[in-house]
Structures are given as C-alpha cells and as structure tokens.
Amino acid sequence: MNPKRKQRLMILLGLATLAAIAVGLVLYSLSSNINLFFSPEQIAKGEAPLERQIRAGGMVKEGSVQRDKESLDVSFVVTDYASDVEVRYSGILPDLFREGQGVVVVGKLEEGGMLRAGQVLAKHDENYMPPEVAEAMKGKMPTETLE
Amino acid sequence: MFSKIIPELGHFALILALLMALIQAVVPMAGTLTRRPLWMAFAKPLASGQFLFLAIAYLCLTTSFLLDDFSVAYVANNSNSMLPWYYKATAVWGSHEGSVLLWSLMLGGWGFAVSQFSSQLPRDMVARVLSVMGMVCVGFLLFVLITSNPFERILPNMPQDGADLNPLLQDFGLVIHPPMLYMGYVGFSVVFSFAIAGLIGGRLDAAWTRWARPWTNLAWAFLTVGIALGSWWAYYELGWGGWWFWDPVENASLLPWLAGTALIHSLAVTEKRGSFKSWTLLLAITTFSLSLLGTFLVRSGVLTSVHAFANDPARGTFILVLLGLTVGLSLLVFALRAPRVSHSIGFTWLSRDALLLVNNILLIVMTVTVLLGTVYPLLLDALGLGKISVGPPYFNALFVPLTGLLCVFMGLGPSSRWKQMSGRELFKRLLGAGIAAVVISAVAPFVYGGEWNVWVSLGLVMALWIVLSLGRDLFDKLRNASNLGIGLKRLSPAYWGMVVGHLGLAVTIIGVTMVSNYNVERNVRLAPGESVEVAGYTFAMQGLRERRGPNFIADTATIDVSRNGEHRFTMQPEKRLYLARGMPMTDVALRPGLLRDLYVALGEDLGDGSWALRIQFKPFVRWLWLGALLMAAGGILAVVDRRYRRVKRRAQQPLASDTAGFKEAQA
C-alpha cells in the first residue's frame, strides 16, 4: 500500500471510529434526556411514569390558581377538558400565564397524581397555542373556545 | 392618491425582480456553456436591476407601515397607529412575510455586491456565480410571491387600527438582531454559489479560494454578531436572565455557524496548501443548506418558539422542497464534478494541516449532535412515535466536552507548521503555556469564589490554554525582529484576524464558565419597605407607581440597591401591559458591568401589596457577547488582508511571485 493510500485509510478508519463513538454518546444522552409529553387524560389513566421528568400541557383551569400567602408557591389545575392534573410550582410564572390559557409544564409526577413543576412555559404570543397542547385538546375542547 | 397604490407598486417591483432573477439564473449560465460573452455579460446588470427592484419593493412595504396603511393585511397584523415611527419601520421584519422579503432583499444585495467587487474575476466565473445566486433568488422570490405576499390587501373591510407589533419585538435588540442574522444566513449563499460555479467550471485553484474566502468570512462575521445579539436580546427581554436555551430556533442559527466555522478553516487549508478541496466544497454546500434548514425550521411552524410566527403548512412544504432541491442538485453537481477538481497532497500527522483536519472533524461532530438533538423530536413526531423534547442536559453533555477537545487543538494549531513538524519542537514551544494555564486556572477559583470548583478550573484552563499559546506564538514571531515596531508590522491582518477570533472564543468561554458557576438567582416576595440581600447587595423595595408609555401602561417598582450599608444606585423594573394586544411584558432593570450584571425582573402582583421579584447576580455575563464581537472582528480583520486586494494586479501580471507577502498569513 502506498503511503498516500495508507494515510487515507487511516483518516477513514479514524473518522469511522469517531463517528461510532459520537453516535453512541448521542444516543446515550438522548435516551436519558428526552422528556416525553403527556396529556392530562394520559396522566389520569396512569400512562405517565412517576419520578421522571415529563412534559404535560393543557389549559389552566378557570379559578384554579391558588397562591400561598407567605411564599412564591402556587398551585393550579391543568386540564384538557377530559381530565385534570394538579400542578404545584414555586417561583415566578411567565408573563403570559393566565387562567384559560394554554401552558406546558415540565416536572415530575408524584404519588397521588400531583405534578411538581420545575418549569412553566407559556408562549410568547397570546394567539399561539403550543402544538402538543393543541393536539392534546383536539376533539375535547368545548365549542365556545374553538375559534 | 399616489400613496394609495404604493403596495401595488411594491408588488409589481417584486414580480419584476423575480423576472430579472429568472433571466439571471438562465442566460449567463447558458452563455458559459455556449461560450457567448454577450450572454455572460447579462449577469452583472441583471444583479444590479434585481437588487434595485427588491429595494423598491422593500421601501414600498416600509412606506405602507409608516403611513399606517391598514388595508395591507401584513401592516394591519403587525403595526398600530400608536407605535413609534422607528418601530413601524422595523416592524417590517417583525413577522413572517416581511422577514422573507428582507431575506430576499439581502440575497439581492449580496448578489449586487458580488457583481460590483468581481472585476478581478474571469468573466465566465462571474457569470456562473451570479447565475447560481439568481437561481437561489428565484426560489425565494417565488416563495414570497406564492405563499407569503406581504402586500396582500384586506378590502373592503379594512380595520380601523392595527393589531400592533408583538411587544417582545418592540426593542432595540429586534431592530438589529434579525438583519444581522439574515445577512449571515444569506451571505453563505455567496460561497455556495462560488462552490457550485467552481465545480461546474472545473476551476478550483488558489485564486478561487482567494475569491471565496472574504465573502465567507464576512457572512460568518454577520452570523456571529446575529447570534450574539439574539442571545443578548433574550437575556434582557424575556425576563429570566438566560442567555442560551438550546431552543430549536437558536440551534437553527448555531448549525450554519458551526459548519461555517469549519468552512473558514478548511478554506484556509485549501488556499495555503491546495488540499481539502472536495471537503471545502462539501462544507460550502452544507453550510448554505443548514442556513436553509434553519429557515425551514423557523418559518414552517414545526417548532414552538417566539420565532414561529405562522403555522401555514404550504410555507413549510415550499421551503422543504426548496431545501430538497438545493441539497439534491448541489450534491449531484458535487458527485459529478468533484473528482475532477480534487487531488490529494500529503502531510504528516503532526502538522497544521492535520490539526485543522481534526478541528473540522470536531466541528462537524458538534454540528451533527446539535442537528440530531434538534431534528430528532421532529422526526419522531412526523413518524407518529410520540411527542418528546430534548432538553439542555443533552446538548450540554455533548457540546461542552467537544468544545473542550476543540480548545486543546486550538492551542496547538497556531504554533504548528504546515505539512510537517517535529513533536519535540511543538512540545518545547507550548510547555510553558500549558503549565501556566493549568496553574492559573487551578488557583483562580480560590481567588474569586473562595473555594475550589472543578468546573471553573476546567473552563478556565481551556480559555487560558488558547490565550497563552497564542501569546507564545506572538512572542516567537516578534522575538526575531530587530525591534518591536518592525516585528508587529510584519504580521499580516490575516494573522491578527486569527488571533482576535481565537481570543474571542476564549473570552466567551470565560464568560460561560463564570456565569454558569457563580450565577446567583433568588425569587423573592417583596412588599414596599422590605428588602432582601443577594450576593452581597441589598435590594430594598421603595414603592410602586403607575406610568403611561406611548402604547402601554406600566407598574414601575423603585428598588434601592446598597452594598455594605452604602447606597449605590436605584433600579426600576417594570411590568408593562401593551394596550393593543392586552399583552403583559416584563421590562427588566439591569445594572451592567464588565465583571458582573445585576438583574431585577418584576414578576407578578401577589395581592396584599407585595410582588414577586426575580433578582440575579450574573458574573462575567458580558464576556459572552464581548467574545462573540471579538470573533466577528477577527473574521473581518482576516478579510482586509491585502492579498485579497492584490489579486487583480497579479491577474494582470501572471508572472508575479506568488509567495511574496504570504509568509505570515494564517487561518
């Protein structure tokens, strides 16, 4: 084998090894870092895992937001009009968080079906509905909110 | 009367620009195939004409905004008579249709620039390059006219007033962030066109790289600034003090940046050593394709983000087809022609060639990991396998170690030599820098934070390794000069560009390391008269009052900040309610500094007079963007190197020596 070919072969082998390592690492990281999305109905049916980070989404139920008097703790109910999930959060809610608006909550489900949220996302545009939420709501939304 | 037809004039101008782009795409290319100079000569005037009519269309849309012509649907949806005039002018790119128009205008602008600064290029090369740019422009103008016409009217029932610009976008950051970003995205179309033209013409010599390099660096610099501005804007505008979220839209801009970074380095090797030719071409195609992919991701509504304006499937499909055509056709040209232009040139494993090869591989691996994390959820969703999202831990787990590895090689690169060098020499040169970097970064956390932090040390050692090895290289270069002035003069702008660019990355890494590890955030509940201490500063809420802005009302809090019992300054965060949309917004109070930012955002009214407040102490956060500006400055500095301007003279005197003045020029 001439040296040039040998070098090329080395490059290719090196590339293949690196690519294999990279893909392996990527898949490993992906498997431990993906957050599955569940609708309140799926959570009520017990399809969502406990103690694992998940995403849930739906509408903030009217009249469900309750604040603690002393701290920044807040609780509210996320609904897809089929089932409800109680969410507890401590911190500052986003500007566009409002009752009757779509939200996505990232957190862990605890025994008893309560979701302890680490993050509450309301989107930047008031006309905007996160696609997952829109999907979860499909066919369940009361007609008057359908526009 | 005349003002009433401005939108129609704009529409006509756009159609004319499309026709010119069509001719520009076909005639000059046909001219090169049939060897007709007259046909080739069509390219330059058409590029100018196309730019002129795009500019007219753009000005017409801006005028419609300024005149509050709410019979134009786009104006009605994104403006309001109460909006200050400067936001009316910039609301043009506040949503989808106008953004694509701006995109097209810039594409025309880059084409015009190529036609103006191409006097040193052979006629057939100019014809091919502009022809390819014409094709890209045809694609985008069709996209504008068919799916996203900004001049569409709502008649006869036009609204009395507009729906207003999204309040998040009423800000200086928005005024400059999208144009910079688009300049970068679109700018890569130039090197893409050069690559395709070079492939078709079978001409890929050192002259080709000297033509392509300045355009690539310029586009890359714009993209760098654009990304940094986006990060800065998100930091102060979204109200929670983050500067990078691994949001798919951010990733969409990072992808072409990573590939573009690989490209500018690969171009350096191609120019200096004539190797990596096919690779460079492939990178040029990849970079522009990733720009298009970014556009697709952002504009098709498949992503959930502030940037996802509209969910019109027709638009997504159109861009996807455009992307498919671009990638497919350019790879076809590549497959057919690349074997003709490439030939391999040997180098040993310890040489600058090899180190730059490693740099390229690492950058591409980074691109692929980001791409996977961004596209994987979309693929799963499209295949009906469930809805997932990939969080920041994934990206951090892969991106951070890869960056670390990249930094190791970045330290070696500048001190190494082309073709081959001895390992002992490299070791001897850089041993001091390595030891110093390790020692300083091991001690620094004690000095700054009072205790050792392994992550801070690791981050700093990467940055210091880059800085100190550059310093050593500079020292070696100046040591042999008879005096410092002469030594400095001998270094080319291209070399300084490399130094400044690499320093920029080091500065950014220091910023990332410090702010990630020493950030202090407290969410508190404060009523007037109460106070809280964060990172040694005492924040005392004095009171709240209501204030009226031009198109909003705001609750403004007054917070006195003191340190060690001594009053320092007053901060006034606001919660605004924008009237036209009834949309609430947080207006952050910032106290910026080179070594730390203080950041106060007003949360919500908790009743009983108290408010939620988010108070943050962010050390070195400015370094993030300062570093990005340095990187961009490096990219531009490398372009002003005189060899790019000497090409013309040399073309006239083909026998002139090719090596004079090139000695110090670097990546």
What report would you give on this structure?
Chain A is of the alpha+beta class. In chain A, 29% of the residues lie in helices and 31% in strands. Chain A is built from three helices and seven strands; from the N terminus they run αβαββββββα. Chain A has helices at residues 3-33, 40-44, 131-137; strands at 34-38, 53-60, 66-67, 73-79, 84-90, 102-110, 114-121. In chain A, strand 3 and strand 4 (73-79) form a beta hairpin. The longest helix of chain A has 31 residues, at 3-33. In chain B, the strands form two sheets. In chain B, strands 3, 4, 5, 6, 7 and 8 form a six-stranded antiparallel β-sheet that branches. A four-stranded antiparallel β-sheet of chain B has the order 2-11-10-9. Chain B is of the alpha+beta class. Helices cover 63% and strands 11% of the residues of chain B. In chain B, a hairpin with a 5-residue loop joins strand 10 and strand 11. Among the domains of chain B are: 1-170; 520-620. Chain B is built from 20 helices and eleven strands. The interface between A and B is large, with 42 and 48 residues. Strand 1 (34-38) of chain A pairs antiparallel with strand 1 of chain B.
Topology at a glance:
The complex is a heterodimer of chains A (147) and B (667).
Chain A: H1 3-33, E1 34-38, H2 40-44, E2 53-60, E3 66-67, E4 73-79, E5 84-90, E6 102-110, E7 114-121, H3 131-137
Parallel strand pairs in A: 1-2, 5-7
Antiparallel strand pairs in A: 2-4, 2-6, 3-4, 4-5, 6-7
Chain B: H1 6-34, H2 37-40, H3 43-66, H4 73-78, H5 85-90, H6 96-116, H7 123-147, H8 172-201, H9 206-237, H10 248-273, H11 277-299, H12 313-341, H13 352-382, E1 388-390, H14 392-412, H15 423-449, H16 454-479, H17 484-490, H18 493-518, E2 520-526, E3 531-534, E4 537-548, E5 552-563, E6 566-571, E7 574-578, E8 583-587, E9 589-591, E10 596-605, E11 611-619, H19 621-639, H20 643-652
